[in-house]
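Listing S7. Sequence submitted for prediction.
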Amino acid sequence: MKKTRLKNTFVVIKKNTHSTLFGLKKVVELPIKKHHQWVIYKDNKPCYFVDFYDLEKESNAMMNSLVLCTQRTIQEVLDLINKRNNTNLSIPQISRLGLKKKIKSENTYLDLIPMPKVWLIYSL
């Protein structure tokens, strides 16, 4: 049986440090936010990159079906994947309540992989 390696995606990201009511919070974000591109965290670390309209990658096409075709939010799909596969996937958000101040921001590259197809197959 031949093993196939997932092709990594090098993504330009912003590493932002925010000061909130609960202390400093570091978040990785895309420099230009688009509603079809997401950096997915696994265990509170950036791990996967999803682009619903990059259909050349099978996992992106599957995420397109799970989110856009079923009219679910990305968070609902991640919750479903987390339940079925006992994972901890999330999209970090900075609370809009109270104080939120960006302290530091730097552009860099991050090497991310597509979502594992095995997780997505069982979520369809």
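Caption to Listing S7: primary sequence and predicted structure tokens for the chain studied. Residues 1-6 have pLDDT under 50 and may be disordered. The first helix runs from residue 58 to 69.
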